[in-house]
Specification:
Pnp Oxidase, Chain A, 9 strands, 9-stranded antiparallel beta sheet, 2 domains, 29% helix, alpha+beta
Length: 215
Amino acid sequence: MSSISKNLADLRKNYTAGQLSENDAPQDPIALFETWFLQASQAECPEPNAMVLATADTVGTPSARVVLLKGISQGGFCFFTNYESQKGLELASRPQAALLFHWHELERQVRINGIVSKLSAAESDAYFFQRPPASRIGAWASPQSREIESRAFLEQEERRFQDQFGDNPPRPMQWGGYRLQPERIEFWQGRPSRLHDRILYTKAQEAWRISRLAP
C-alpha cells in the first residue's frame, strides 16, 4: 500500500453536528432545502450555492462538474451555462441530471435527481443582465468545452467582443439557464459511528413521499 493510500485509509471523522428525523421533516422538501441553505450561509460555508452537476451522454457515460445554484423557482433548481458546452449538449440529448450539495461545516449533503429543461429567454435575460459586464463579455469570448489553441485566443476574443459591445453586451443565444425539476431529494446528516440520517423525498404525482434510508 502506498503512503498516500495508507494516509487515506486512516482518515476518518466522527460526525456529531446534528441530526435529522423524518418526524420533524416538513412535507415540502424545498422548504427543508431552503432552511438548510440558510443555515449553510449563516455558518459561512464557502460558496454554499456550489453544487456538483452530473449529466450523461447518449451512451450513458457520466460526467460531473461544480456549478453554482442561481435560483429556486417553480419548485426547481436553476443554473446557467453555455448551451453548446459538454453539459449543454448532454442535457439536450438526455435531460435527466443529478445535483449534489456538500456543506462540510454542517456535516450535511443534499442529493437531487430530476428532469432538466431550459428556462425561458426572459428568465435567462433577467439573470444575464445582473452579471458584471466582464462576465457577460466572457460568455461571448469562450466557446465553452471546445479545444482552443492557447490562452491568448481567449484574451483576443475578450478584446474583440469588448470592442464590439462595450460595457453592455447582449445575451448570446447559446447561453442561458436550466431548471432541474426534482423527482428525488435526499437529505443526509452525518451522525456518530457512521449511522447517518438519510431522509428521502420521492415525488408521487403531486405529493411527496418521505422515507428513511439506511446509511
